[in-house]
Amino acid sequence: MENVSLVELVSNKQIIFRDYITGFPKETDMVSRTGTIRLKVPAKEGSSSSNSVLVKNLYLSCDPYMRLRMKKVDDPYVPAFTPGSPISGYGVAKVLDSGHPDFNEGDYVWGFTGWEQYSLIDNPQTCLMMNKPETLLIKIKHTTDIPLSYYTGILGMPGMTAYAGFYEISSPKKGEYVFVSAASGAVGQLVGQFAKLMGCYVVGSVGSNQKVDLLKNKFGFDDAFNYKEEHDWVAALKRYFPEGIDIYFENVGGKMLDAVLPNMRPHGRIAASGLISQYNLEKPEGFHNLFLLITKRIQMEGFVAPDYYHLYPKFLEMMKQYITDGKIVYVEDTVEGLENAPAALVGLFTGRNVGKQVVVVARE
Amino acid sequence: MENVSLVELVSNKQIIFRDYITGFPKETDMVSRTGTIRLKVPAKEGSSSSNSVLVKNLYLSCDPYMRLRMKKVDDPYVPAFTPGSPISGYGVAKVLDSGHPDFNEGDYVWGFTGWEQYSLIDNPQTCLMMNKPETLLIKIKHTTDIPLSYYTGILGMPGMTAYAGFYEISSPKKGEYVFVSAASGAVGQLVGQFAKLMGCYVVGSVGSNQKVDLLKNKFGFDDAFNYKEEHDWVAALKRYFPEGIDIYFENVGGKMLDAVLPNMRPHGRIAASGLISQYNLEKPEGFHNLFLLITKRIQMEGFVAPDYYHLYPKFLEMMKQYITDGKIVYVEDTVEGLENAPAALVGLFTGRNVGKQVVVVARE
Questions:
Q1: What InterPro entries does the record tag this protein with (chains A, B) (predicted)?
Q2: DSSP string covering B67-125
């Protein structure tokens, strides 16, 4: 390794998290700043090697859970952002220099990185049996038939969320009735397609007629509705599921869950993956139909994808095959340029994105 | 079978359900009436046999779920009482006459009967794989070392509720931390003792200091607290469970569940058996900490005992052994006389009872 101090400083555009917020996030909660960085891993003092990796960020992922990191809470499962530092999150990057034995210059990786052009990632964790998912970095076996950006979605954390929640949590059976909320998002679109591959009947709820169309004509959902145009969700679900719902894949929370419960069939399952409708509220909406959990004997389980990352190799092989065979389709909403990342993230909470929201920092 | 019309009519005191109610039940929601009954099963017209059983009621069970039957709701899982007819519920009875092949005069039975001195039970269901639990009638193999009244509690539906909820739903492991609400009731006292037999650490919440004492000194709970004397339940649970809770056996609902969630350990389990704090409310209290279900990966499952009645023979054998070996103790709160049944039922909702609430109609 060369002496890092001899390596030239280059400029490094960053998206800085300003401070903890309440309510809906705004673009102005983040600010662009240009710093400098040397594109080499610094040598450890008193040691000849370092475990760090220096990467060029290519694709950044906008995920609903990131709103939770904008709040100062003492939750070890969702560590808060640091005011004054770059936003961090899942992304795809290219290794420019590595002090880590598992990575070499030129490798493509997915995992946790910063919202900036270049990131120095200290001590990334490469083991899939992890207890600190926010340090994960996985080498990508890149092939030209799969876009690299897919590792922020269908082949990354959202893909694993859909996979674990449907196959591991929901105990699906052929012919069952499946309801997915936020169904055109990164997770929802996959859950619906997994359900169809399993031989289930699947209906999704989304926030626009364009997305209804997408579900029915692109992802192959049996039916879909725009929740903004339905005033009585209990009645709407009754219409779409006259026989009731066996599996609810919960991405939104709040009143939708209360509307689902009266429509659940006995021994139904609810996989709770996210509650996007609740993340901007100071006090979450109450859920009132808990008693139906008992009389209908419902199993409701919360889960997070990293608990299932040990299944990632199996998942990846399956998904690549599905993608190349055209059995699963995938819609991304890409925004060009790091400077547009704040708007992209904020847009998740108004449903502006159609499909998985990705920010392109660089393509190579 | 004799000609029924030749059999003398005897008087039959009954507790009649007046009409559907809102709010807390009152004694005056039920009224005593004396009718008449012939103590013989009537012959079926045009047929020589009948499937009915004529019983003398001995012990009646007061159970929290009965409040739900006082509301006119279209829920097939909890059928409403019929205004003008006797209250119905679990009880222990003696067969006086039988047209059913499974029962003979002199048999003791437990299952669904009426709140009256004598009941004619039409077409009781004797199969434990049932879909209509409200017609269940099971023959008791009576031995003098086990009180017959136990079949309304520890050896009946509440016992099966504790058994199924703890062993089948909660996946308990030795050394885990277990919290039980309504812990001195018919179900709670057994869950706590099952947990101790499994080698768990168990704490219960109850509504009086007398019950705290009962939990600690009679049932062997590791600790117990009076929820009425604690103003911050989140803090109280943190004190009793500094390491967190692995299993919550939910009998009360409402704010207690919201206080439990922040104290749950990752991958904890919640067995939802009942929500007694909510049954008298027109709109149940909201449950707000749903998101913690996700970040802590909690499994919450509602269940009802009848789904597990196929395990009853195994359960019964185990429990009888535990009782005769003194490994499990059991506290009943018995009220003498059918006329006192309304007060006993109403008292469940103010926590007046200490232990399982039983009404003695007759002892033989």
A1: ADH-like_C, ADH_N_2, ER, GroES-like_sf, MDR_fam, NAD(P)-bd_dom_sf
A2: GGGGS----TTSPPPPTTSB-EEEEEEEEEEE-STT--TT-EEEEEEESBSEEEE-S-B
* A79 has pLDDT over 90: no
Among partner residues A257, A273, A290, which is closest to B253 by beta-carbon distance? A290
Cβ <8 Å between B288 and A290:
no
Domains belonging to chain A, first-starting first, are 9-153+331-360 (3.90.180.10), 157-305 (3.40.50.720)
The verdict on B257 touching A (C-beta cutoff 8 Å) is: yes
Class of residue A22 by CB neighbours under 10 A (exposed 0-12, middle 13-18, buried 19+): exposed
Which among B284, B291, B301 has CB closest to A291? B284
Sign of CA dihedral B268, A252, A215, A240: positive
Q: What is the C-alpha radius of gyration for chain A, rounded to an integer number of angstroms?
A: 21
Q: For the segment A270-306, what is each residue's pLDDT rounded down to a tens digit?
A: 999 887 777 777 777 878 888 889 989 999 999 999 9
Q: How far apart are CA A133 and CA A149, in angstroms?
A: 20
Predicted pLDDT at A197:
97
Instruction: Count CB neighbours of A216 within 10 A.
Output: 15
Q: pLDDT tens digit string along B127-161?
A: 777 667 778 999 999 998 999 999 999 999 999 99
- At B75, the amino acid letter reads D
Quick one: pLDDT at residue B290?
A: 85
Q: Which residue has the tokens 């103003």?
A: B231
The candidate with the shortest Cα–Cα distance to B279, out of B346, B201, B224, is B346
pTM for this entry: 0.90
Separation in Å, CA B135 to CA A72, B91, B130, B219, B287: 55, 12, 9, 33, 34
Question: Could you tell me how many helices (H) and strands (E) chain A has, helices first?
Answer: 8, 15
CB A195 within 8 A of CB A224: no
Cα–Cα distance between A179 and A221 in angstroms, integer? 10
From chain A residues 68-87, the ones with a CB under 8 A of any chain B CB are 75, 77-78
Residue A118's DSSP bridge partners are A56
**Residue B131's pLDDT is what?**
63
Three-state DSSP at A90 gives strand
CB contact at 8 A, B53 and B41: yes
Q: Which one, of B348, B364, B322, lies nearest residue B149 by Cα?
A: B364
Q: What is the structure's pLDDT at A168?
A: 96
Contact between B161 and B341 (Cβ < 8 Å): no
Strands A356-360, B356-360: parallel, antiparallel or unpaired by DSSP?
unpaired
ipTM, 2 decimals? 0.86
Q: What is the mean pLDDT of residues A67-87?
A: 87
Residue A48: pLDDT band (50, 70, 90) is low
Amino acid letter, residue A36: T
pLDDT confidence of A246, banded at 50, 70, 90? very high
Ranked by mean pLDDT, the top range of A54-58, A256-260, B276-280 is A54-58
pLDDT at residue B299 in the model: 97
H-only helix segments in chain A: 157-163, 188-198, 209-217, 233-240, 255-260, 290-295, 312-324, 341-347
Contact state of A284 with B291 under an 8 Å Cβ cutoff: yes
Q: Give the burial class of A134: count Cβ atoms within 10 A of its Cβ; 0-12 exposed, 13-18 middle, 19 or more buried.
A: middle
